Amino acid sequence: MAEPGSSDGLALRRLPTRDRAIVLSGVAAAAALAWIYLLYLSWGMAHMEAGAGMAIMPRMTDWGVVDLLLILAMWVVMMAAMMLPSVVPMILAFAILSRQRRAQRLPYGRTSVFVLGYLTAWSAFCLLATFAQWGLLEARLITPMMVSATPLLGGALLVAAGVFQLTPLKRACLGKCASPLGFLLTEWRDGTRGALIMGIRHGVYCVGCCGVLMALLFVFGVMSVLWVAALAIFVALEKMLPRARWLSFAGGVLLVCGGVVVATAG
Predict the structure, then answer these.
(1) Is 2 among the domain residues?
(2) Per the CB 3.0–4.6 Å rule, which of 44, 70, 82, 190 could disulfide with 232?
(3) How far apart are the first and last CA of the chain?
(4) Is residue 1 a part of any domain in this protein?
(5) Facing residues of 142 across strands?
(6) Total structural domains in the chain?
């Protein structure tokens, strides 16, 4: 398994400046729009007198179809804001391989289609998260403000996320996410359909690596921008730091300890 940040970084530094600028500006614009949306939504929840009139705000309870769609949109945008920065090395690697194949007149895929596939995998996760949030709200296990209503649930989620950090599945998925060139060279498929499939497959590995961590948002607050940002930074560091296995281990231990404290304190 490739270590995070291993030899791929050297290859990515050889990308043409123009290609790098196009990819980075596109990802930065998408991530910035997503963060603006999240900040606006968070402001609306913090100022309920104004938020109640916002078209993008779901009701606090008794959700209908429209509310579920709004929550789904919130999760999709939130995942885009959190995950797009961490996948930049993979997108850059895909762009350079596609450029090389195009120059050689070989079948290639468009980078935008690869990113679409990646976001499709996370959108499927977001659908599950939406129904999980609905179920927890109906069971009164989270509050209308999208925070755990009981220390036992909060503690259990922290422990579950911490234990997952220490599992072989976590290490295997992180290895796929942290080695862009390794993933692409073993998973390459030609054409537009191939780019979409590769994006979906990478997204599935990314969900496998980070999806359980997203359950922590039910502990800290689904719309807590501070914790969303903290999780996004942690995920990016896991993928990008050289030999970052220690970070996953340390994070897992801290989460388990924190979960025990939260559960017993209640």
Answers:
(1) no
(2) 82
(3) 41
(4) no
(5) 148
(6) 1
- Closest Cα partner for 264 from 155, 107, 167, 143? 155
Domain carrying residue 142:
8-265
Per-residue pLDDT tens over the stretch 126-175:
999 999 988 888 888 888 777 787 889 999 999 999 999 999 999 999 98
* DSSP notation for the chain: -PPTTSTHHHHHTTS-HHHHHHHHHHHHHHHHHHHHHHHHHHHHHHSHHHHTT-TTPPPSSS--HHHHHHHHHHHHHHHHHHHTGGGHHHHHHHHHHHHHHHHTT-----HHHHHHHHHHHHHHHHHHHHHHHHHHHHTTSB-TTSSBSSHHHHHHHHHHHHHHHTSHHHHHHHHHHH-HHHHHHHH---HHHHHHHHHHHHHHHHHHHHHHHHTTHHHH-TT-HHHHHHHHHHHHHHHHSTTTHHHHHHHHHHHHHHHHHHHHH-
Residues 33-86: tens digit of each pLDDT: 999 988 888 877 766 665 555 656 676 667 888 888 988 998 999 999 999 999
177: in domain: yes
